[in-house]
Amino acid sequence: MIEIKKNIYWTGIKDWDLRRFHGHELSTHRGSTYNSYLIKDKKTVLVDTVWDPYKEEFAERLEKEVGINSIDMIVINHIEPDHGGSLGYIMSRIPDTPIFCTKNGAEIIKRHFHKDWNFNIVKTGDSVSIGEYELVFVEMPMLHWPDSLLTYVKGANLVLSNDAFGQHYSPSSLFNDEVDECELYQEAIKYYANILSPFTPLIKKKVEQIKALNLPIDMIAPSHGVIWRKDPMQIVEKYYEWAQEYNEGYVVIIYDTMYNATKKMAEAIGEGLAKQGVPYKLFNNSITDQSDILTELFKAKGMIIGSCTVNNTVLRSIAGLLDEIKGHKFKGKFGAAYGSYGWSGEAQNIIHEHLKAAGIKVIAEPIQFKYTPTEEELAKCIEFGENFAKEMNK
After folding, report:
1. pLDDT tens track for 304-317
2. Which member of 83, 168, 224, 354 is catalytic?
3. CATH number of 2-242
4. Is the pTM of this model over 0.85?
5. Domain segments of the chain: what residues?
């Protein structure tokens, strides 16, 4: 255990080897942590647990450090298995211990473990004194589950925020002032883009609500990654910035291709963007990590997506990406479609319509050419890129 505040301890697990999360949906190039916290006050409080595969190691650590039977109450900020997975194992030892959670939290816990434990339902503004400290609860619905809860430790000026403000990141240190800041923010924005971006309007409102509470905050301790000890409100301000139709001004060109005709078009479109002074990034979607692609799309101002036509539709990697774009509900983005075809040529219109349905502002009609594009056709692709840049920056 590591003391992060007086009598408050990190008692989590570092998962250095983790490379895929949420099944195989999310890449975690730098591992992750499952952060659980223990408060030793007049009452001993366990806040969240760890992922089920680590339940025995977690329980052994608790037993050694404090004795599981001495835990007076458990706070479950979020019952998703990476946070609450060990709860059943711990409760098998102390089945009468009260669990503090939201109403939705209790319902989901029952569905996970099929037990009717001693639930204490809390709402925003509710509090419980545990001695020197007082726990104050703030509901955080859909950040990113219906049960999500934030626990503020009054007297320690500590926010236990669960998924909010976290990162899938497992460096040697637990604290933001002792890690590589570039790596930290790479993982923080990737976490936001991939997990929280669908709930951006709710995040904006919740950040405004938290700021309006005027709580003194010395530290923000999420349930993944590092603890924000130096200037902790920096990540709150970043979340607010990311919730404001965020972009970094560049365009992402994405393609999938069978024989490189669509790739040649992508490169020519990039030339056109560059002629207008617009920076761009180009990715073959079929060989690029999808979590990284979604992060780039979140950061981009524009997206130009292409595929050749196969079986009257787009290639499968582009089909999946279009669904992801719709599901992530990106705001304030510009888009267009392009590609090659040999027989029927439906792919470009499919991309065009999917982008519109996803709320992307499509600012150009699709461009497509048959088989390998000629020099004249590539010149039209350059012009397409130039026109996209001009329209995007009007």
Report:
1. 999 999 999 999 99
2. 224
3. 3.60.15.10
4. yes
5. 2-242, 251-392
